[in-house]
Specification:
The protein is α/β, with parallel strands linked by helices. It has a domain of 163 residues: 3-Layer(aba) Sandwich (Rossmann fold), CATH 3.40.50. It is built from 6 helices and 9 strands; from the N terminus they run βααβαβαβαβββββα. It has a 9-stranded mixed sheet with strand order 2-1-3-4-9-8-7-5-6. A hairpin with a 4-residue loop joins strand 7 and strand 8. Helix 4 crosses helix 5. The protein is globular, with a radius of gyration of 17 Å. The two termini are 25 Å apart. The model has no long low-confidence stretch (mean pLDDT 95). The chain binds zinc ion. Zinc ion (ZN) binds next to loops.
């Protein structure tokens, strides 16, 4: 059974009023709930917990990490970033949702600023599967519509995706590489833009379908032992 950890920066009790209106159970819990329905072994992790919710024992027991963050990126410690990047390189999957484009581990994995254009006007987005043969697009039509979404637009300062799966079009005219896949070490990384916190995007079946597909795709085929270089002792910091 694929083990998923859903990381969110805010515990349910501290969600803003705007979020609670849409997700009374908390945004992280809402994402975890539909993954559980798909029979993934799912747990939630929160920023305020030990080691930012992602200690060694949690990462070691995670096949796919889902990350949603927005206003608290700066509170994630550099040690946590290093740990997450190390585990991705060793094989753990990582899926970054919506405003996690500025999450520290995402930027560390991609190596660019990951900045983009944005506008919050609740406009319609059409998500086009531009790589319909990709496992993350499996079972979807050529496109689906999200009635209200925050606009994220190009230019999006990311490296050329290893696999571009979706492009979003917004009513205001912007387009965006809204589903981009990467390989880092043995790990797989996927960025998926839909999911502004005050619109019920994670209630929508197509969006859930994409995230479930992404979890299956990102789950490791093989996981490496801690990465060390036998010819340069202590040259690489390793995790135990
Ligand atoms: Zn947003």
């Amino acid at each position: 059974m694929v083990k998923v950890t859903v990381w969110h920066e805010t515990v349910p009790a501290e969600e803003s009023e705007g979020v609670r209106k849409v997700y009374p159970e908390g945004l992280g819990a809402a994402v975890a709930a539909f993954l559980k329905v798909e029979n993934f072994q799912t747990r939630c992790a929160y920023l305020g917990e030990k080691d930012d919710g992602l200690p060694e024992e949690v990462l070691r027991d995670t096949d796919a990490l889902i990350w949603w963050g927005h206003g608290k990126h700066h509170l994630v410690s550099d040690e946590t970033v290093k740990r997450v990047v190390e585990y991705v390189n060793r094989g753990m999957g990582a899926i970054f949702l919506h405003s996690a484009h500025l999450a520290k581990p995402f930027k560390a994995l991609l190596g660019t600023s990951c900045t983009l254009q944005w506008r919050e006007a609740g406009e319609r987005e059409i998500v086009w599967a531009v790589n319909p043969a990709h496992p993350i697009a499996a079972g979807l039509d050529a496109h689906f519509t999200i009635e209200h979404e925050e606009m994220y637009g190009e230019p999006f300062d990311i490296p050329e995706p290893d696999e571009l799966v979706f492009i979003g079009w917004f009513k205001g005219g912007n387009v965006f590489r809204c589903g981009a896949a990467y390989r880092r070490g043995r790990g797989k990384v996927f960025y998926f833009q839909p999911g502004h916190e005050t619109y019920p995007v994670y209630r929508q079946k197509e969006v859930r379908h994409v995230i479930c597909n992404a979890v299956r795709w990102a789950a490791p085929v093989s996981v490496a032992a801690p990465l060390t270089c036998p010819h340069a002792k202590n040259s690489i910091e390793t995790l135990t």
